[in-house]
Specification:
The complex is a heterodimer. Chain A is mostly beta strands. Helix content of chain A is 0%, strand content 59%. In chain A, strands 2, 4, 5, 9, 10 and 11 form a six-stranded mixed sheet that branches. Chain A has a five-stranded antiparallel sheet with strand order 1-3-8-7-6, with no helix packed on it. By secondary structure, chain B is mostly beta strands. In chain B, strands 2, 4, 5, 6, 9, 10 and 11 form a seven-stranded mixed sheet that branches. In chain B, strands 1-3-8-7 form a four-stranded antiparallel sheet, with no helix packed on it. Classes of the chains: A mainly beta, B mainly beta. The interface between A and B is medium-sized, with 26 and 28 residues.
Chain lengths: 114, 114
C-alpha cells in the first residue's frame, strides 16, 4: 500500500524567507503527484500537478519537483508572505490502486509571520 | 474554482440515525470521490464513482453507501451513524483518471455524531 510522508509537520518562518516542504512516497508507480493548500476550516485548493514523466512544475512563487525513482517531491516557496500561512498537503495518484484515487500525506502546517 | 458544492456544510446528529450528504458539481466531470479527513489520519477514500450508477469502495467504506443517479450528484449515506463517523467529509471530482488529471475538492461537510 502506498504511504505518503511529509516533513516537517509544522514550520514557522519570518516573512520573506524561501522555504522547502518535503514529501516522500513508498511506491514509485504513480500517475502524478499533486500539491494542495488547505486553509483552516476550508477545502483543498490544488496548487500544482506533476505528471510522472515530468521533473518539475512552476506556478508563480511556487515550484514543485519530482524524483520518482527516489520517491520524493519538494515544494519550494519563494519570498514567503503571511498569506501563505496554511497547511500544505501532497498526494500521489497510485498506478496500482483504484484509478485516480489519491494517497495523502498528513500535511505541513506553515506559519509565516510578519 | 471548480463548481463543486456540498450540503449540508455542518450537521449534528445522534447515534443510530441515518444521514445523507450531497455533493453537486457543475463541471460534467466523470469521476467523483468521497474522502474523510481526521486528525492523525489525513484524508482517506470512502467511495468513488466512475460514471452514473457506477460506484466502488475505497479503503474506509464500512458503514457508508453511495449513489449516483445523475452525473452532477453523488450522495454519501451513513446508514446508522456512529461516533467514529464524526469527521470532515470532502467530495472531489476529476475529468478523468490518469497522468494528467487533477482532482478538485469541495468545501467540506463537518459532521458530528453525538
Amino acid at each position: 500500500k502506498q504511504e505518503v510522508t511529509q516533513i516537517p509537520a509544522a514550520l514557522s518562518v519570518p516573512e520573506g524567507e524561501n522555504l522547502v516542504l518535503n514529501c516522500s512516497f513508498t511506491d514509485s508507480a504513480i500517475y502524478n503527484l499533486q500539491w494542495f493548500r488547505q486553509d483552516p476550516g476550508k477545502g483543498l485548493t490544488s496548487l500544482l500537478l506533476i505528471q510522472s514523466s515530468q521533473r518539475e512544475q512552476t506556478s508563480g512563487r511556487l515550484n514543485a519537483s519530482l524524483d520518482k525513482s527516489s520517491g520524493r517531491s519538494t515544494l519550494y516557496i519563494a519570498a514567503s508572505q503571511p498569506g501563505d500561512s496554511a497547511t500544505y498537503l501532497c498526494a500521489v495518484a497510485d498506478r496500482g490502486s483504484t484509478l485516480g484515487r489519491l494517497y495523502f500525506g498528513r500535511g505541513t502546517q506553515l506559519t509565516v509571520w510578519p | 474554482d471548480a463548481g463543486i458544492t456540498q450540503s449540508p456544510r455542518h450537521k449534528v446528529t445522534e447515534t443510530g440515525t441515518p444521514v445523507t450528504l450531497r455533493c453537486h458539481q457543475t463541471e460534467n466531470h466523470r469521476y467523483m470521490y468521497w474522502y474523510r479527513q481526521d486528525p492523525g489520519h489525513g484524508l482517506r477514500l470512502i467511495h468513488y464513482s466512475y460514471g452514473v450508477k457506477d460506484t466502488d469502495k475505497g479503503e474506509v467504506s464500512d458503514g457508508y453507501s453511495v449513489s449516483r443517479s445523475k452525473t452532477e450528484d453523488f450522495l454519501l449515506t451513513l446508514e446508522s451513524a456512529t461516533s467514529s463517523q464524526t469527521s470532515v467529509y470532502f467530495c472531489a471530482i476529476s475529468e478523468g483518471a490518469g497522468m494528467s488529471y487533477e482532482q478538485y475538492f469541495g468545501p467540506g461537510t463537518r459532521l458530528t455524531v453525538t
